[in-house]
């Protein structure tokens, strides 16, 4: 079953709608606090990152590799292809207490327009204990396939819910 084309949620001051994001997606710098926790440890922390904004998707955040604690990123097998960014490689995220398999990914040689995120790492929020943006705990993009992070200032509805494949 495919849902009808959605009606965007209303936005207020300081809020943004994923339905105002472009297609093809846009890359922008992000100057704010980001943390990622796994196995009871903060495994990444930065105040400089990038976000990819695409129609119907909450932002996907890409952190510089030096934002991750030493030893957390372990190369994983396999790859995938993004029509916008190119070939993705994967990482397992590893702590003494927990391993999140293929929970991180990177574009080592991204396509034109996305060169700034070469080697930067995005993380599936649903596969770790906690991710925050500016101190707010994010909600993972629904569906388990996409890597967007939902915060209170980003409004949907979001691709990934059942029936949204055609959005």
UniProtKB/TrEMBL annotation:
Coiled coil: none annotated. Residues 35-125 form the DUF427 domain. It comes from Mycolicibacterium madagascariense. This is DUF427 domain-containing protein. Residues 1-22 are annotated as: Disordered. PANTHER family: DUF427 DOMAIN-CONTAINING PROTEIN (PTHR43058:SF1), SLR0655 PROTEIN (PTHR43058). InterPro entries: DUF427, DUF427_sf. Pfam families: NTP_transf_9 (PF04248).
